[in-house]
Each structure stands twice: as structure tokens, then as C-alpha cells.
Specification:
It contains nine helices and eleven strands. The protein is rod-shaped. It has helices at about 1-55, 60-70, 95-105, 145-195, 210-255, 265-300, 315-330, 350-365, 420-430; strands at about 70-75, 80-85, 120-130, 135-140, 310, 335-340, 345, 375-380, 385-390, 435-440, 445-450. It folds into three domains: about 1-150, PAS domain (Beta-Lactamase, 2-Layer Sandwich), CATH 3.30.450.20; about 210-300, Orthogonal Bundle (Helix Hairpins), CATH 1.10.287; about 310-450, Histidine kinase-like ATPase, C-terminal domain (Heat Shock Protein 90).
Length: about 450
């Protein structure tokens, strides 16, 4: 942006400078042209007066003029015959035309502006009058070289002045642009931090008054947003933790009452016990989510401790598949591990990888249906390792897939889940610089893909 602003300012300044410099340069050229023609007009008048008062033309006078000024001179009579000359030929068509115009007392030809590259001699002519009658003409071949040199020097001074002016303007434009845009650079960094959930340093308040007010307002807003998010995270964690003890007491009393419940109240008791199970599971998931959020937030802000744990994926996958095999057998489901690159390792603690697998396998076994196949696969990529859990079940509608990882989102047929599993997995992956995504599997079911950092070893 700064480059575009400076380019625009310099373009406008260049146009303004050219609008001033070009007329000035042409005006100086016109002035020098007029000076030269005025000098030669005076010399023409002198030569014409001498020729008019003399009974015979002094050829030495023309020769002396040619030697002194280095320019040709020619005196002709009324019939165009050469009376005296040096450096000019009476047979030259241009000279003849100029002499005829002077003898006929016709208006002089328009003067040509002398420019730095002008080298062609210019012809000036004046009639010789005696007693009011034109008896001949004086023609001079004016050399514009000296005038062109003077104009060149003037134009070089103008060009030098323009270059200095543009240089000063460029430095000034860069300084002003940097002063104006510096707050925007800080704001851009602050916005990126805010979008990533990072409570970074406030944007530096500087620049014009309007940007100062805007930056101050943004800093206040960012501080309020980060404070609100922090309070929200703490509220979830604190509330979940504080509710565990009362809930445990209720569970203990409910279990104590089990032997005293009459047969008529048994369905109500069992329903209450199921709701207590669901509430306990929800609180446990909320606590896991709060811890995962705290870890991912620490990673984004750069406050998390460096992780040096290296976990072999094959070992974890095989262990978790053994654990979930009983659940799969009860639903006539098959578990399979596929990899073309054995013993891939990720830079994460083993228990975090286990949680990611458990969440994805639990979802796949619970919702893919009876008789389905659940496949766990690992694939190395340029930026890490993809760990994928997919199934060939019915999957989700296309419009529901993007919502699957949202908090508390559950499918229409899900009455037991909390809707927090994939949200927890997303935060766990983010805590280690990874990503979690949900999509359709090639077999038509659902696929949960974790992109995890590869272990350097």
C-alpha cells in the first residue's frame, strides 16, 4: 500500500513539475531566440543604412562582418544581382527568396524557435531604402549555434532543478507515507493476532489524529474481546469443575436409593440415572474442552512449552484399535489400519494422539451403522502427517458436514452425544500446531482428518 501511495504521489508531482518545467523551458528558448533576432535586426539596419548612403558598395564591409561574426552576408540590388557577399551565394534558393521578400517590402517570414538541437542557419533580410525607394536588400545567414548552446544550458539547469525537486519530494513522500501508514501496519498485525485468538501487544498509537483515534478504539475493542473470551473460558472450566462435586453427591444419593425404589418407580429411577450419566459425561467433556482450549490458546500466543515428545503412530493406532475392537464386534463392524509408510512419528505426547483417535473412532463406530468398515490411515505430507479415520457408513448430508466440528452440534439421530468430541479434537490438534477437519470419505461415509506435525527424528 505504501508503494502505491508513493507511486501515486510521485506521478502527480511529476505531472505538476512537467506542467511548470515545459512552459518555462519553451519561454527561455523564445526569449533567447528573440534576443538573437533583435541583435541581427540591428546589424541588418546598420548594414542597410551604410549601403543606402554609399555611392558604391564597400565589399570589405561584408568581408569584415563575415570574419567577425562567422555568418554569411549578402547585398543585392533591386533586380537581385549580387553587389557584395561573403559566406552566402546569391544563387541559393533560400537566399533568393529572402532577398525578393525584402525588395518587395513583404512581411518577414515567421521566426523559428531555436531549440538545443537547432543547427540550420536562419536567413534574415532587410530592404535598402534611398529617398523612400527600395534599391536593394541585405541578407544575413544567422548561425543559431551559440543561442542553441545557451538554451541547452538553461534546459539543463531546469532539468537539474526538477531532479532535485523530485528527489526532495520522493524523500518527503516516503517519510509522510511511512508516518501515515505506520499505524496501519501495527493495526494489521493486531488484527491478525486477534483473528488467531492471540492477545498480542496493542497496536502502537501514532500517525494522524484520525488514525490515532481509530487505533485507540481498536485497542480498546481488542482488549474487551480478549477479556470476554478469557472470562468465557474460565467460566466454562470453573463451572464444570464446581458442578462435579454436587453432581457426585447426587449420584451417590441416587445409587443409595436404588435398593429402596419400588417396582412402579423403577422406570423413573432408571431415567434419572441415565440423565445423571449424560450430565456427568457432559461435564467431563466440558472440562476436556476447557483444557484443550487453554493448550491451543497457549500455542497460538507462543506461551506453550516446546514439545519434544515423539510418538509412533503405528503403536498408538494398533493399541486403540484393540481397545475399540469389542465395541466394533458388538455392532458387527470391522476395524482396519492402512499405511504405506510404517512407523511414522508425530511430535505430540502419546496421550493427545490417543484422545484424537478415540474421538474419531467413537464417532465412526457410533454413527456409521451396523456392518460397516472403519479405516485408520496415515500418510506423510510435505508439511506433516495426515491421520485419517474414515468409514463407509451413510455419512452426513452435505450441508451438515461443515457443522460437524461445531460445539454442541449433533445430528438428528444423536440423542446420546454431547456434541463436543470433534470440537475437543480440533483444539487438541491446534495446541500442537495441527489441524482437524471433517469431510466425506471416498466410500461415502464420514472422514475425520488430523494434520499433525511430524517428528524431526
Amino acid at each position: 500500500m505504501g508503494l502505491r501511495v508513493r507511486a501515486l504521489l510521485m506521478t502527480l508531482l511529476l505531472i505538476a513539475t512537467a506542467a511548470l518545467a515545459i512552459p518555462l523551458a519553451l519561454s527561455l528558448a523564445d526569449h533567447r531566440t528573440n534576443v538573437l533576432h533583435t541583435e541581427r535586426e540591428r546589424q541588418l539596419t546598420t548594414l542597410a543604412d551604410i549601403a543606402a548612403g554609399a555611392s558604391a558598395i564597400d565589399t570589405d564591409l561584408v568581408e569584415r562582418y563575415h570574419r567577425v561574426y562567422g555568418e554569411g552576408a549578402l547585398i543585392v540590388d533591386a533586380d537581385g544581382r549580387t553587389l557584395a557577399g561573403a559566406g552566402l551565394s546569391g544563387t541559393d534558393p533560400g537566399v533568393t527568396t529572402a532577398a525578393e521578400r525584402a525588395v518587395s517590402d513583404a512581411p518577414a517570414a515567421p521566426r523559428t524557435r531555436i531549440l538545443p538541437w537547432t543547427r540550420q542557419p536562419m536567413l534574415e533580410a532587410k530592404g535598402i531604402r534611398r529617398n523612400g525607394e527600395v534599391i536593394g536588400a541585405v541578407v544575413l545567414g544567422v548561425d543559431p549555434a551559440a543561442a542553441a548552446h545557451d538554451i541547452t544550458v538553461d534546459w539543463l539547469w531546469i532539468a537539474a532543478g526538477c531532479i532535485v525537486l523530485l528527489g526532495v519530494a520522493a524523500v518527503t513522500a516516503q517519510s509522510v507515507t511511512r508516518w501515515v501508514l505506520r499505524p496501519l501496519v501495527g493495526l494489521e498485525r493486531a488484527v491478525e493476532d486477534m483473528a488467531g485468538g492471540i492477545a498480542g501487544q496493542p497496536a502502537h498509537v501514532s500517525g494522524p489524529p484520525e488514525l490515532r483515534r481509530f487505533t485507540s478504539a481498536f485497542n480498546a475493542m481488542a482488549q474487551a474481546v480478549h477479556a470476554s473470551l478469557d472470562h468465557q473460558r474460565r467460566l466454562i472450566a470453573d463451572a464444570s469443575h464446581q458442578l462435579r462435586n454436587p453432581l457426585a453427591a447426587v449420584r451417590l444419593r441416587a445409587d443409595t436409593l436404588e435398593d429402596h425404589v419400588a417396582d412402579s418407580g423403577r422406570p423413573t429411577y432408571e431415567s434419572m440415572s441415565a440423565e445423571l450419566d449424560r450430565l456427568e459425561n457432559l461435564l467431563a467433556q466440558l472440562l476436556r474442552l476447557a483444557r484443550a482450549e487453554e493448550a491451543s490458546h497457549s500455542h497460538r500466543t507462543g506461551l506453550a512449552a516446546a514439545v519434544h515428545d515423539s510418538t509412533d503412530l503405528d503403536s498408538v493406532v494398533e493399541q486403540r484399535l484393540d481397545f475399540w475392537q469389542t465395541t466394533a464386534d458388538s455392532n458387527e463392524q470391522r476395524l482396519r489400519f492402512e499405511t504405506a509408510h510404517p512407523h511414522l512419528a508425530v511430535q505430540m505426547p502419546r496421550h493427545d494422539v490417543e484422545q484424537l483417535l478415540d474421538i474419531a473412532l467413537d464417532n465412526a463406530l457410533r454413527y456409521s451403522g451396523t456392518g460397516t468398515t472403519v479405516i485408520v490411515s496415515t500418510v506423510p505430507t510435505d508439511a506433516g502427517i495426515d491421520l485419517t479415520v474414515s468409514d463407509n457408513g451413510p455419512g452426513l448430508p452435505a450441508d451438515a458436514v461443515p457443522q460437524a466440528a461445531n460445539r454442541f452440534w449433533r445430528g438428528h439421530d444423536d440423542s446420546q452425544g454431547t456434541g463436543l468430541g470433534l470440537a475437543i479434537a480440533t483444539e487438541i490438534a491446534a495446541a500442537h500446531g495441527g489441524l482437524a477437519s471433517v469431510g466425506r470419505s471416498p466410500d461415502g461415509g464420514l472422514a475425520v482428518r488430523y494434520h499433525l506435525p511430524a517428528s524431526p527424528s
